[in-house]
Amino acid sequence: MKPRKPCFISLFFFFFFVHCYIISLADAYDPLDPHGNITIKWDIIKWGDSDESMYDARVYIFNYQLFRHVESPPGWKLQWDWYGKEVIWSMQGAEAYEQGNCHKIKGNLPHCCKKTPQIIDLLPGAQYNMQTANCCKGGVLTTMNQDPTRNSAMFQMHVGNAPYINVTNFTYDSKTLDTVAPKKFSLGLPGYTCDDPVRVVPPTRFAEDGGRRFTEAFLTWNITCTYSQFLASPAPTCCVSLSAFYNATITSCPLCSCGCRGQAGVKCVKPGETHNEDPLLQLPHSKDQVVPPLVMCTNHMCPVRVHWHIKTNYKEYWRVKVTINNLDFANNYTQWNLVVQHPNLRNVTQAFSFNYKALDQYGFVNDTGMLWGLKYYNDMLLQLGPNGNVQSEILLHKDPEMFTLREGWGFPRKISFNGQQCVMPPPDDYPRLPNNTPSNAIARPYVSSIIFLLALILLL
């Protein structure tokens, strides 16, 4: 009897699928923002008076992410599937994109009769009687760091044809209650996946009269939505280039960082051509419609390029210049942000024209910081053109225990733009110090002038 040979093919496929599964789980987990998510809260605040098949719902959307925001367009577009034949009779703070087929309803028509409604935020300046708290921002949700007063949204609606439950005698374990909240939630945003609703016990409490009185919701559900960069965009959307005062070589973005010229489906505008001739940009677009990127033809083909330049080396400080270029002819970036990892960020002294906040994720280790624009000044990164860039300088204090300019230490380990990780150049391509230059050399613009004056004095 021959001994059985091990099934290497089966083992290969087993470990391959396990590896892919682990990657899929890790992709939705961001170590710089481990608890970041968008949470939807569904509160039933009142269940019918004369009609037990109607209730009032208050829906909240909270962005609990530190550096990933929702801008407009597209803005959030909340969707769900009703369990039964529910309809939305009226809404405040938002509206349904489509009314749907309401021909079976006699009398006044509901606001929306679709089985899968799509709810969109109202625009700023909506009628006062249609507004609610935290509404009317066009679907924008800022990050918790940039503007915590605008990282949430809320709307209210009157729902009919709800499943019957005995509101005077029910228990929280009743299976009927699980059919009250909708299912299959979606934010309508690339990269986000929402879990099933989870009933919260006890329900939400509401403070009234300045906290002197509290009321309670009838029922509450939470829906958690997490983000995956791979699901949002399989190809990167930004890259990083590097330079330093001590080296004339500029390390550009890696070749084909976000795509390759001539690749199928990749469009770009060559130098000297006008992007106004592109038929894609001549089509009428609504304010809520996403315009695909149309980038300038480059070797990296990225819509956004971040340049890190080591500008000056003083005795106790060193200075870095950061420039962000929008190479997209079609899109602006509002409320943009940049997250940088560098070991000396714990000693940031000043960011001159950007906001800066440290992201303390590892206790005493502080090597990650977030940069974003100043309001009404450079918080919008415009399309490619004379104003299609923003820049700032960062002054850092030298840490004598670690500071050096050798081996690429002065360059960041990782950079992300709007939560999307940028492609970094390989370490071997980083600008290097000249062989005869010490790592603690002081590069002040007036050093040569002082040496010249001293020599002149000695000669005299």
From TrEMBL:
Annotated protein name in UniProt: COBRA-like protein
Alphabetized InterPro entries for the sequence: COB_C, COBRA_pln
Record carries keyword Glycoprotein: yes
GO terms (BP aspect): cellulose microfibril organization; plant-type cell wall cellulose biosynthetic process
Keyword Signal in annotation: yes
Domain COBRA C-terminal: 237-431
Cellular component GO terms, alphabetical: plasma membrane
Domain of life: Eukaryota
Record keywords, A-Z: Glycoprotein, Signal
PANTHER family reported for this sequence: COBRA-LIKE PROTEIN 6, PROTEIN COBRA
Similarity remark: Belongs to the COBRA family.
Signal peptide limits: 1-28
